[in-house]
Amino acid sequence: MKITAEQIAEVLNGTVVGDSTVEVFKLAKIEEGEQGAITFLSNAKYNNYLYTTKASIVIVNKTFQPLQPVKATMIQVEDSYKAFTKILEYANQIKLMKSGIEQPSVISEGVSYGTDLYLGSFSYIGKNTKIGDNVKIYPNSFVGDNVVIGDDTILFAGARIYSETIIGKKCVIHSGTIIGSDGFGFAPNTDGTYDKIPQIGNVVIEDHVEIGSCTTIDRATLGSTIIRKGVKLDNQIQIAHNVEVGEHTVIASQTGVAGSTKIGKNCIIGGQVGIVGHITIGDNVRIQAQSGVGKSIKDGEIIQGSPAMAYNDFSKSYVYFRKLPNIVKDVEELKKIKDKENLS
Keywords assigned by UniProt (predicted)? Predict the structure, then answer.
């Protein structure tokens, strides 16, 4: 779909400098711009590309003053980075604007769904599932019985949603993600074997949640595993049974959260973090990458290390740790001097 500079400026509340009728139909980096592409400039390191790019339109900040003539049409906005993000969102919406039910696919008895459903081929919808308006379920997806999916939610190809899961509005579930699989519950026997503990709870995902590819969220033993509104989970994360993740918390890839742990709101958790079960992590906590968290954390703390400790303490300790060989050498030298003094 082609769109003119004038139309884009209206969407972005910007000002056109150059040909307002020029049309674009694709997006590009400024250094890779081609005719018919729109790009943006926000980082001063890329200023020189503005004068050489072949892109038809460049979004720039209103405060930017070019030092030489610019061939491309410019659209001046308050924040070029945010403006280009808005264009990306718009382009993505157009790309995902699918509807209809492809075959072969299965819609079981008792299923209800709203307007503009897209159901990709080789997908399965279980009994009594309720699906809202404008939901997109891409090919090879599985949705179990008694699931609820809110309006404007997207399930990308190969997502697996187990029975009784509740997913809110405007959520995005990426490919290969599994929601509602059994929690890891086993009771040991005296002979060394284990009996499986039935996991009869569910998973509740509130509105505006995005979950990356190949992430697993286990159903609760009893009650619910809960992902609160606005949470963003990266790829390849493990959320165990009965965990609760607070509003607008962000968790990076390869993090694992053990059962029944409660994570507060507005937390930022780095990649490859391990969190034990049955603890509480407060609001606004920052956990640095590769930390091992073995105890509860108070609101607003920043921690690092394994076992994790206060970030400032870790930084100071790490300085000494790096110097440990020299410290040991100095101690040994002092010991030798003391031994000589004792002999004399």
Answer: Acyltransferase, Lipid A biosynthesis, Lipid biosynthesis, Lipid metabolism, Repeat, Transferase
- At a CB cut-off of 8 Å and minimum separation 6, what does 339 contact? none
What six digits make up the tokens of 158? 């190969």
CA–CA distance, 231 with 65 (Å, rounded to integer) = 39
Contact 155, 143 (CB under 8 A): yes
Q: What is the pLDDT of residue 12?
A: 93
E strand or H helix that includes residue 124? strand 124-125
- Tokens for 104? 């072969």
Residues 6+ apart with CB under 8 A from 200: 221, 222
Q: Kindly tell me if the per-residue pLDDT of 340 is higher than 80.
A: no
Helix (H), strand (E) at residue 303: strand 302-304
Q: Which two tokens stand for residue 320?
A: 């000494």
What pLDDT, in 10s, does the model give residues 266-307?
A: 999 999 999 999 999 999 999 999 999 999 999 999 999 877
Which one, of 21, 18, 22, lies nearest residue 50 by Cα? 18
User: How far does CA 285 lie from the centroid of its chain?
Assistant: 17
CB 314 within 8 Å of CB 293 = no
The single residue of 174, 208, 241, 278 carrying the catalytic annotation is: 241
State yes or no: is 241 an active-site residue: yes
Contact predicate 46/31, CB 8 Å: yes
How is residue 133 written in tokens? 């308006």
pLDDT for the residue numbered 312: 82
